[in-house]
Design brief:
The chain is mainly alpha-helical. It has 16 helices and three strands. α13 packs parallel to α15. Bound molecules: coenzyme A.
Length: 374
């Protein structure tokens, strides 16, 4: 056995998956073999969610059934609604998401059943209820009345409706749908690996997703989309952008929304999301954020040859859609539940306890001295 340490498991292949792959031959992230940008162009989010969970794109009947199930499961228990109203208004919505799924686990009658069939039913419940819980907190913390989900609205339309009380125009909904498709899955990233690690002890799906949410919160992972917005707000106006980013690089700061463990010459999701960011900016008649975006990107590539990742365009897009900045990563959650769940089910199907080794560098063996002699 080699003693060589691969910090961060850099370059280590730990298992197999059928869910997704970055295919170098088409330079793209693929879900079950389909390029993510192709799915964005031809599908709505529910179709992609079905694909990730079931392995194939749905036909019309399968999609209808899937959508009906999701819409039927949206309602939250009174306990969760009351809890959400009581949560501190200052709580980060990622902590609300983490707590909400944990409470769902307490309430779910099938928590102990880890069969694929039961897990698929539980996934559907978590997938349908999470946006409702987050939207409830979105409003409750502002002292606004919680809005119940509507069965005649799509997944994305319903989320806007529950947060803002209205559904925006089709192009905005499409841009949101596209962001969900691009966020849905990304192989063995840190949150998915967390979910698989928890699953590997044969723990349950609610626990695995709770852990995955905690992992996604970090700024080096999902939290980056929020940090991008904080950066853009600090820059304030395009005239400041060039100086700001050069100073950040002179200070050797990590610039959020740039770089990636897998993509070293550009994240294949970025061009699609950048296009939709542009569409939303045009609809909202905003030029400021696009200009800041372009200047920072140009300097990052010229000075560091580091390209943006998908969090860079989603940050300002969600801002222009009207979402509070701390809701950007929770939006990532409502989408990534699909990818996490597919991996959790895959892990159960061919499980091996995940238990790596560590190279010990602590004290050598020593004898305990009694308290009165220390
Ligand atoms: C995503 C990330 C953690 C990948 O990390 P990694 O694969 O471990 O790569 P490293 O952090 O070792 O980066 C390699 C080099 O590029 C630099 N670098 C990478 N991303 C950078 C960034 N966003 N800003 C500035 N420098 C960066 C590192 O400082 C390092 O430089 P060095 O070799 O001189 O020390 C890293 O790029 C990062 O922190 N990005 C910002 C957070 C982010 O946007 N996360 C979302 C990912 S989807």
């Amino acid at each position: 056995m080699s003693d060589e340490i691969k910090k961060g498991l850099l370059g280590i292949v730990v298992d197999e998956t059928e869910v997704s792959k970055v295919m170098p031959e088409i330079n793209s992230l693929t879900y079950r073999g389909y390029a993510a940008q192709d799915l964005c162009a031809k599908c709505k989010f529910e179709e992609v969610a079905y694909l990730i969970l079931n392995g194939e794109l749905p036909n019309k009947n399968q999609l209808k059934k899937f959508e009906n199930q999701e819409r039927k499961e949206r309602k939250l228990s009174n306990t969760i609604i009351q809890d959400i109203k009581r949560f501190p208004k200052t709580a980060h919505p990622m902590d609300v998401a983490r707590t909400a799924v944990s409470i769902m686990g307490l309430e779910d009658k099938e928590t102990k059943d880890n069969s694929t069939e039961a897990n698929m039913r539980k996934v559907m419940r978590i997938f349908a209820k999470m946006p409702v819980a987050l939207a409830a907190f979105y409003r409750a913390r502002k002292g606004k009345k919680i809005i119940s989900p509507k069965k005649n609205l799509s997944f994305s339309e319903n989320f806007f409706y529950m947060c803002f009380g209205k559904v925006p125009n089709k192009e905005i909904v499409k841009a949101f749908d596209v962001s969900l498709i691009l966020y849905a899955e990304h192989s063995f990233n840190v949150s998915t690996f967390t979910a698989r690690t928890i699953t590997s002890s044969l723990s349950d799906i609610h626990g695995a997703i709770t852990g995955a949410i905690a992992s996604l919160k970090g700024p080096l992972h999902g939290g980056a989309n929020e940090e991008v917005m904080h950066m853009m707000k600090k820059i304030k106006k395009p005239e400041n952008a060039f100086k700001w980013i050069n100073k950040a690089l002179d200070n050797k700061d990590v610039v959020m929304g740039f770089g990636h463990r897998v993509y070293k010459s550009g994240d294949s999701r970025v061009p699609t999301m950048r296009e939709y960011f542009g569409k939303v900016a045009k609809l909202k008649k905003d030029k400021k954020f696009e200009k800041i975006y372009d200047i920072v990107e140009k300097v990052m590539i010229e000075r560091k040859n580091i390209h943006p990742n998908v969090d860079y365009p989603t940050g300002p897009t969600y801002h222009l859609m009207g979402f509070d900045t701390d809701f950007f990563t929770p939006i990532f959650v409502i989408s990534r539940i699909t990818g996490w769940s597919a991996h959790i089910i895959e892990q159960y199907a061919a499980n091996k306890l995940i238990r790596p080794l560590a190279k010990y560098k602590g004290n050598q063996h020593r004898k305990v001295v009694q308290l009165n002699q220390r």
